[in-house]
Every structure is written in C-alpha cells, then in structure tokens.
Amino acid sequence: MLVITRKTEESFVIETVNGEKIEVIALESGKDRVKLGVKAPREVKIIRSELLLAETSNVEASQAVSKDVLNKLYHFSPKK
Fold first, then answer.
1. How far apart are CA 61 and CA 21, in angstroms?
2. CA-CA distance, 24 to 61, in Å (whole number)?
C-alpha cells in the first residue's frame, strides 16, 4: 500500500494504463474524517469500497443460491 500525506488543497495524480489522469485533492480534514475531491474523465467509474464489497457479496450470494436451487431441482426431477 502506498501512503501519501497531503495538506488541504494539495493533490496527487493517478495515471491509468490508458494514459487517463485522475487527480485526488484533499479538500478538508477534521477530527475523524477527510474530504477528498476526485477529478477524472467521465467514463472512469468511481465507487466507494463498501458499495463494491456489498455488490460483490450480493453477486456471490445470488450465484450460490442459484447453484443450490438448480442442484435441488435436478435431484427432485423424476428419473426415467
């Protein structure tokens, strides 16, 4: 993990493999929060990590349920 220290209004830039530049700006900091601004091309998807984790968990859960349901249906189908 790279750790970067910035003062308010300072920024750093992330350059993607495609050459797109994403600038992250420290807007303000408080007791237990930091407010960041992100300047990126419109096509760059930016998502909070907790939402990404929830989305991943939901997909995994739905896949597990689907496999389980299909397995049960297979075993309950009449044998010929």
1. 35
2. 33
Residue 37 — φ and ψ, nearest 5°?
-115, 145
Eight-class DSSP state of 76: H
Number of alpha carbons in the 13 Å side-chain half-sphere of residue 18: 7
Question: Average pLDDT for residues 39-48, to the nearest whole number?
Answer: 90
CB 20 within 8 A of CB 42: no
pLDDT at 40 over 90: yes
Q: What is the pLDDT of residue 52?
A: 77
| Alpha carbon distance 40, 23 (integer Å) | 7
pTM of the model: 0.63
